[in-house]
Amino acid sequence: MFRIRQMRKLRVTMPGRTIEIYTKISMHRAGIKKHFLPMDDDMNAKLCYCEKGVEVVGQPSLVFIHGFSSSKSTWLSVIKHIPDRYHCIAVDLPGHGETVGFNEEYYIATNVVDLLKQFFDRLNFIEPICLVGGSMGGAIAAMFAMKYPFDVGMICVLSPPPGEEYETDMVQQLRLGKYHVILPETFKQYYALMKILSKKKIPFARSLAKTYFKIHLRTLNQHKRILQIAFEYDYPNLGEIYRQLKYLMCPTLIIWGREDQV
Ligand SMILES: CCCCCCCC/C=C\CCCCCCCC(=O)OC(CO)CO
């Protein structure tokens, strides 16, 4: 999706601090830039994120959190439709996309939430943000808002994974360790999942799907580990986190498809 034209070190000065960001200027027609943000305590760990536009006083930045086994690029098709006057950020979570160097501890949601807090503090947003999360990213957005309510002005939660009391067949299977329902191991499983995950029929050439499947295989084991950890540490608390959401005072948009099988 990105064609890289150049890479350079950028020094960005914002109110209160100066940070260094390794920037890859992409030629994506939506005018989206890609950044790598090295962590203070571990220079090998780098968060990768995309950015469109600049911060505007009095207007929240929109921050997008992707789902499990997905990446920031899933939001590009959304972001390109958002007017240029809005500042948009889409980040790759640990173990996903081009974010690199984070150990397994960062596959635990609470640590991801604290990492996002660190990330947002580094970006030094001037306004409380609008946090948008899809699927697992929705659960993370909700958890973030609960823990750091002053950092969010509003949240948007799209098809978050259900808590225990509303467990779907698919989540039950995942909980029982049958990860292939969402992490296919064969091309046949992969192709079938593509259909389950998209309500609208997408004309998907098999040859293209085969290429995507090969790419998927590269991250399979890492993503299995993430699921394992999510079900051990996070899933048992998810229902309780959702129940507490009612105490959150910021405007919240929750969208959940009735026929969503996940
Ligand atoms: C970095 C890791 C942080 C871990 C935080 C865990 C918080 C949630 C706890 C357990 C639920 C796991 C259920 C996963 C199913 C999600 C489906 C999903 O995201 O769908 C994809 C499509 O595959 C959408 O792009």
From TrEMBL:
<feature type="transmembrane region" description="Helical">
    <location>
        <begin position="125"/>
        <end position="146"/>
    </location>
</feature>
<protein>
    <recommendedName>
        <fullName>acylglycerol lipase</fullName>
        <ecNumber>3.1.1.23</ecNumber>
    </recommendedName>
</protein>
<dbReference type="GO" id="GO:0005765">
    <property type="term" value="C:lysosomal membrane"/>
</dbReference>
<keyword id="KW-0812">Transmembrane</keyword>
<dbReference type="GO" id="GO:0046464">
    <property type="term" value="P:acylglycerol catabolic process"/>
</dbReference>
<dbReference type="Pfam" id="PF00561">
    <property type="entry name" value="Abhydrolase_1"/>
</dbReference>
<feature type="domain" description="AB hydrolase-1">
    <location>
        <begin position="60"/>
        <end position="261"/>
    </location>
</feature>
<comment type="function">
    <text>Lipase that preferentially hydrolysis medium-chain saturated monoacylglycerols including 2-arachidonoylglycerol. Through 2-arachidonoylglycerol degradation may regulate endocannabinoid signaling pathways. Also has a lysophosphatidyl lipase activity with a preference for lysophosphatidylglycerol among other lysophospholipids. Also able to degrade bis(monoacylglycero)phosphate (BMP) and constitutes the major enzyme for BMP catabolism.</text>
</comment>
<dbReference type="GO" id="GO:0031966">
    <property type="term" value="C:mitochondrial membrane"/>
</dbReference>
<dbReference type="InterPro" id="IPR029058">
    <property type="entry name" value="AB_hydrolase_fold"/>
</dbReference>
<keyword id="KW-1133">Transmembrane helix</keyword>
<keyword id="KW-0472">Membrane</keyword>
<dbReference type="InterPro" id="IPR050266">
    <property type="entry name" value="AB_hydrolase_sf"/>
</dbReference>
<dbReference type="InterPro" id="IPR000073">
    <property type="entry name" value="AB_hydrolase_1"/>
</dbReference>
<dbReference type="GO" id="GO:0031902">
    <property type="term" value="C:late endosome membrane"/>
</dbReference>
<dbReference type="GO" id="GO:0047372">
    <property type="term" value="F:monoacylglycerol lipase activity"/>
</dbReference>
